[in-house]
Specification:
Layout: E1 7-11, H1 19-23, E2 34-39, H2 41-49, E3 56-59, E4 70-75, H3 92-108, E5 113-116, H4 121-126, H5 134-141, E6 148-153, E7 156-160, H6 167-173, H7 176-192, E8 200-204, H8 219-232, E9 237-242, H9 244-247, H10 250-253, E10 258-261, H11 264-275, E11 280-284, E12 290-293, H12 310-324
Parallel strand pairs: 1-2, 1-5, 2-4, 3-4, 5-12, 7-10, 8-9, 8-10
Antiparallel strand pairs: 6-7, 6-11, 11-12
Helix pairs in contact: 7-8
């Protein structure tokens, strides 16, 4: 007897953005998983039926078997009506309720993993809830002391030592303990979530030319190199610190399974240039599986039927692969 399909929670994200529109494409996405969209049933049905009138919207029930071409929705009510493209802080708590329900389902085993559509950080903060992003919210909700953001796409896996920090604060944030823990999480999840028995990690330097022997900064000498040497002694395959301007050439990338960039805009512009619209954001170090689209809420596209679901499809496929691994 074949094993049941994994059940993935798909959070519909900011209701005024393209998250609900992306869900309209899920019934025609053939994948070996049962996909359950979390959000307001009527709002999601209206957005889907505007472009896919024939899709049946089914109420989610544990253990049920959805019909082909239908979409299961776990109903969580909006606080107020939504107009596509127009943010409303009154629905900020709804967005977080959707995330909380998906997290709870993953922690309990109801869901094998969660895939998140984009949220709008600014409107959540405007509602009085400090919110710096999915990654940090998931870490707090699962009591995980440190998580690592990694994007996958364009044939690359790029993880970040620091995430949403002003550039002026990056150097001070890159400490030996942080870098050690980040590399351990990355190494462990490449093995357990991605099935790589002996992952090879390319580590970027912080400064131009990786500091050029200390003439352009000492972070490589004082922090990065000592950490790499200590972890190599534990058996990790770590290359670097490497100059970031030549790390992403094909010859160098071919020598590694993943890259660790020191800050957000050191690694992600390269990956997004190669894969925007088809990349996936992954949170490593969590006790649950979480993947996400690699783009924002695209308010100008919400409700137009022109939203491209490519990144959502890729995020679902990667989550399935992580469940299998």
């Amino acid at each position: 007897m074949s094993s049941p399909l994994p059940v993935l929670a798909i959070t519909s994200g900011e209701p005024a953005g393209i998250g609900p529109d992306l869900c309209a494409a899920l019934p025609r996405f053939d994948c070996p998983a049962r996909l359950v969209v979390l959000g307001d049933r009527d709002m999601i049905a209206a957005r889907i039926h505007a472009v896919e009138p024939s899709v049946d919207i089914l109420d989610y029930a544990v253990g049920s078997t959805p019909r082909p071409g239908s979409l299961e929705v776990l109903h969580l009510p909006l606080a107020c009506p939504v107009t596509p493209g127009l943010l409303d802080a009154a629905n900020a708590r709804y967005v977080l309720d959707v995330l909380d329900r998906a997290i709870a389902g993953c922690k309990s085993g109801e869901f094998a993993g969660m895939v998140t559509a984009p949220v709008h950080k600014g409107i959540i903060c405007e509602a009085g809830v400090p919110f710096s992003g999915h990654t940090e919210y998931l870490a707090e909700a699962t009591a995980t002391p440190l998580v690592v953001m990694m994007l996958v796409g364009g044939g690359m896996r790029v993880a970040l030592a620091t995430t949403h920090l002003p550039l002026k604060d990056v150097s001070a944030a890159i400490t030996r303990p942080l870098l050690t823990d980040t590399l351990r999480i990355l190494h462990t999840d490449l093995r357990t979530r991605f099935g790589l028995a002996a992952p090879r990690i390319l580590v970027a330097g912080l400064n131009p030319h990786a500091g050029e022997g200390g003439h352009m900064g000492r972070e490589e000498i004082d922090v990065i190199t000592p950490v790499l040497e200590a972890l190599r002694a534990e058996g990790m395959d770590l290359r670097g610190p490497l100059p970031a301007d030549t790390l992403f050439v094909p010859h160098t990338l071919g020598q590694g399974d993943a890259v660790l960039a020191m800050f957000h805009d050191q690694g992600l512009p390269v990956l997004k240039h190669a894969s925007f619209g088809g990349g996936v954001n992954v949170t490593l170090g969590l006790p649950i599986i979480r993947t996400s689209v690699d783009h924002g809420t695209a308010l100008d596209l919400a409700g137009t039927g022109r939203a491209d679901p490519g990144s959502l499809f890729a995020a679902v496929e990667l989550a399935i692969g992580m469940v299998r691994a």
